[in-house]
Design brief:
The complex is a heterodimer. By secondary structure, chain A is α/β, with parallel strands linked by helices. Chain A is 32% helix and 12% strand. In chain A, α17 links the parallel β16 (526-533) and β17. Chain A folds into three domains: 4-104, Ubiquitin-like (UB roll) (Roll), CATH 3.10.20.740; 119-236, Alpha-Beta Plaits (2-Layer Sandwich); 310-357 and 446-627, 3-Layer(aba) Sandwich (Fe-only Hydrogenase (Larger Subunit), Chain L, domain 3), CATH 3.40.950.10. Chain A starts with 29 loop residues before the first strand and ends in a 12-residue tail after the last helix. In chain A, α9 (297-320) crosses α11 (360-376) and α9 (297-320) crosses α15. Chain B is 50% helix and 11% strand. Chain B has helices at residues 3-20, 27-38, 43-53, 57-66, 86-90, 93-104, 146-155, and strands spanning 78-83, 117-122, 134-136, 139-141. Chain B is an alpha+beta fold. Chain B folds into two domains: 3-66, Orthogonal Bundle (Arc Repressor Mutant, subunit A), CATH 1.10.10; 78-155, Glutaredoxin. Chain B has seven helices and four strands; from the N terminus they run ααααβααβββα. In chain B, strands 2-1-3-4 form a four-stranded mixed sheet, covered by helices on one side. Classes of the chains: A alpha/beta, B alpha+beta. Chain A binds chain B through residues 8, 10, 187, 192-200, 208-210, 217, 636-639, and chain B through 24, 43-44, 46-47, 51, 55-59, 61-62, 65-66, 72.
């Protein structure tokens, strides 16, 4: 969302921002306002809310969220502006004149209390049995503003039926307070367009097209709405009770794989500063809870790089040498199940571009019930495979009917970071105090390349490290300082990078020697890659490809459905803000840099699995059976 | 919906989009035209409007659900809307309501079996000085008595 023109929201929902001055020292660049009789100098066009933040005065907010456009619908942030007849919503009031603001007058306090009280009169509050108990913004505000009775009544019966149709997201509209954050998330931030307010007046509620259940509409299960919801009107489908049951069953062999993003974020659920990695503490905690084995999803992230990278090389070879016009380029990554479903709905004609490699979670699922079961002599029927993910779409992914290549349901349960934290707390474990321990064999070690999958650009960086070494034979460290591909890092919506391959090539590595004879066909070629995160940015790239623009000439594009990549996923701790995402990314990159092993193809366990199990190499028959998948043309129309 | 019907609908909406322009602001006039010609805005039409205006179907549905005079389900040929606001209420709306219900054999919110009449309440029709008032399609009938209302209903064609 760069400029006003890019906003698809109706005018009434567009922010009331005015052009920020570029030179603050120029006359009119700054304005002196008086907040509670204290003078503050702010740049022209700053909202009252931001000005108060600068002055160290806290103002309650509810419908306001850093990621979203300004709505000004909840009115909780009202303040008194001298000379104005009514109270003003501070989040939607840009300062253009030297005004006098008062944030704590009897009128403001009374208004705020009444506003909260009015929301409570519509909100079906069953706080004790609510998933958001203790982390509910409405509950906090009611406490903060001393609401001590239901002046306007209280709901004692749920008004709407709970929509449990989706594998990922549960909608309980009786708890909705109509702040419309989910609507703005779905339409503006993600451009998926599933939720809108339906009806009018006191009949207004948030619903889907034709009020269909979530499973029947084009929801991509990204869960960003869950992460924005101030109450529990939207929540993830929690499988923790089933997992407890499996753990308590002595016959079941319960294994868990943990993704990199939850490990960098779970600390927030235990009151720690964002950006503290608790990988090894988490391993111990999971063992104490009762999981039989704890594996590292990064291992299959490494495997994904080998499979997806090989697939790219095969595609390029076919297109450039074989002059095969049926080859679809650019190749898209397929790690993000939200993105996969988005493509299936919105651009089904581009499904051939999607890498057929499964996501790391699903690869691990099929390996656990085949390779691991074989090796350790466990009956795959008794294995319960759990995946700790930052993602709600993973719950949908593991329930896709085609994800049963091992002969069983590959991954039984997808668990989000929030639910894992809940389970750990339930087991009476204080995670930060746990001793450290390592992952279990036979998938013990994983590389830093797999780790950075958690941040936007990570898959691309990992792939570049491997592909460039495969082709040029040189060390990635010699091409990129410290093997850090900084061009694809960071939180820019769309990133683009060109890598000239030069004309000095190494020998074809043994792993893929049977697929390409040499690298001479790549002489003087430039590898063009792009990275997009958030489906709104993905849409921009896809529309550009459709129009034959710059991105249609790319060879490889990484897409992630959530802003910031997995670390900003819909299953991550609430709240998730740009600042918190930054800290999680720092934690992930710091951990990568601290590792010895930072390239997927150098992972000895990967080499071993290709020697022992997938003996025909990447993209072979067996790997296609277990590690690759196919997609469904879903389309947009709902009949 | 049959494919033929769908194609005809698409063509019609394309013409409407051409007429009013492919902007968000054209949404209401387009919907009103569809409503006028088809007595409802079917699911398929909503999705086609969304596609041609490059907005999401749920946004179209949201607008339709907001306005009482736009509807997604087909209604009867004559939509009878009786004013239920204070003045008409004082002036004897209840008796008119009972008379109409008895005459048509349906209650408010329902459509007769032959799809001829749909009975609804409306909020203020702006005829407070001449209440009670009702609206049949686009025509307002004021100063109603039970007998007069029944006569009007019988007379519409």
């Amino acid at each position: 969302m760069d400029s006003r023109k890019d906003y698809r929201a109706p005018l009434s929902q567009q922010p009331l921002t005015i052009e920020k001055p570029t030179d603050l020292t120029a006359i009119g660049g700054t304005i002196t306002v008086e907040i509670n009789e204290k003078k503050v100098v702010v740049p022209l066009g700053t909202t009252i809310l931001d000005a108060c933040k600068m002055a160290g005065i806290s103002i309650p907010t509810l419908c306001h969220h850093e990621d979203l456009c300004i709505a000004g619908v909840c009115r909780i942030c009202v303040v008194e502006v001298e000379g104005m007849r009514t109270l003003q919503a501070s989040c939607a009031f840009p300062i253009t004149a030297p005004i006098k603001i008062k944030t704590s007058t009897p009128m403001v306090r009374k208004a705020r209390r009444h506003i909260i009280d009015l929301m409570l009169s519509e909100h079906y509050g069953e706080c004790y049995s609510c998933v958001r108990n203790g982390n509910c913004e409405l509950q906090n505000l009611a406490k903060e503003y001393g609401v001590d009775g239901y002046t306007f009544g209280h709901v004692d019966k749920p008004r709407y039926e709970i929509d449990r149709s989706s594998y990922a997201v549960i909608r309980d509209m009786s708890k909705c307070i109509l702040c419309k954050r989910c609507v703005r998330t779905c339409i503006d931030l993600q451009e998926v367009g599933v939720l809108e307010s339906i009806g009018r007046g006191d009949m207004t509620h948030i619903s889907t097209f034709l009020e269909k259940p979530l499973s029947d509409v084009i929801c991509i299960n990204c869960g960003q709405c869950i992460n924005r919801c101030p109450t529990a009107a939207l929540r993830a489908n929690d499988p923790s009770d089933e997992i407890w049951r499996a753990i308590d069953d002595p016959k079941k062999h319960v294994v868990i794989q943990t993704a990199p993003s939850p490990r960098a974020a779970i600390c927030e659920e235990f009151g720690m500063e964002a950006g503290t990695s608790l990988t090894q503490e988490l391993n111990t905690a999971l063992k104490r809870i009762g999981f039989d084995k704890v594996f590292d999803t990064n291992f299959t992230a490494d495997l994904t790089i080998i499979e997806e990278g090989t697939e790219l090389i095969i595609r390029l070879y076919k297109a450039l040498v074989g002059k095969d016009a049926s080859v679809s380029l650019p190749q898209f990554t397929s790690c993000s199940p939200g993105w996969v479903k988005y493509l299936e709905h919105y651009y089904p004609e581009y499904l051939d571009n999607l890498s057929s490699a499964k996501s790391p979670q699903q690869m691990f699922g099929s390996l656990i019930k085949t390779f691991y079961a074989q090796k350790n002599g466990v009956n795959p029927e008794d294995i319960v495979s759990v995946a700790l993910m930052p993602c709600s779409a993973k719950k949908f992914e593991c329930n896709r009917p085609e994800m049963a290549d091992s002969g069983y349901k590959d991954v039984d349960y997808g668990l989000t970071t929030r639910e894992m934290a809940k389970m750990i707390k339930e087991a009476g474990i204080n995670l930060p105090e746990m001793p450290k321990s390592h992952f279990d064999d036979p998938f013990g070690e994983a590389s830093g390349a797999g780790l950075i999958f958690g941040a936007t650009g990570g898959v691309m960086e990992a792939a570049i490290r491997t592909i460039v070494e495969f082709i040029t034979g040189a060390k990635a460290e010699d091409i990129f300082a410290n093997a850090n591909v900084v061009d694809v890092r960071g939180f820019d919506g769309i990133k683009y990078m060109e890598i000239p391959l030069g004309d000095k090539f190494g020998p074809v590595p043994g792993l893929i020697a049977h697929l390409v004879p040499n690298w001479d066909w790549l002489k003087g070629a430039t590898l063009k890659v792009a990275v997009a995160h958030g489906t709104a940015n993905a849409k921009k790239v896809m529309d550009d490809i459709k129009a034959g623009g710059k991105f249609s000439e790319c060879h490889f594009i990484e897409f992630m459905a959530c802003p910031g990549g997995c670390l900003g996923g819909g299953g991550q701790p609430i709240p998730t803000t740009p600042e918190i995402r930054m800290k999680r990314a720092q934690a992930i990159y710091a951990e990568d840099e601290s590792l010895e092993l930072r390239k997927s193809h150098e992972n000895p366990h990967i080499t071993k699995i290709y020697e022992e199990f997938l003996t025909e190499g990447p993209c072979s028959h067996l790997s296609h059976k277990l590690l690759h998948t196919h997609y469904v043309k879903r389309g947009k129309y709902i009949i | 919906m049959l494919i033929l019907e769908k194609n005809a609908m698409t063509e019609e909406i394309e013409k409407l989009v051409e007429k009013y322009g492919p902007e968000r602001s054209s949404l209401l006039p387009i919907l009103q035209d569809i409503q006028r010609d088809h007595k409802s805005i079917p699911d398929f039409a909503q999705q086609e409007v969304a596609r041609l205006l490059d907005i999401h179907p749920v946004e179209v549905f949201s607008v339709i659900s907001f306005y009482a005079f736009l509807n997604t389900e087909a209604k009867g040929k004559f939509i009878v809307r009786l004013c239920r606001t204070i003045t008409c209420d004082i002036k004897g709306k209840e008796r008119i309501a009972q008379a109409i219900e008895r005459e048509l054999g349906i209650t408010f919110g329902e459509t007769t079996k032959d799809n001829k009449y749909t009975l609804e309440y409306a909020n203020c029709l702006g005829m407070c000085d001449q209440g009670p008032a009702m609206l049949i399609n686009d025509i307002v009938y004021a100063n109603l008595t039970p007998e007069k209302a029944v006569k009007i209903l019988k007379g519409v064609k």
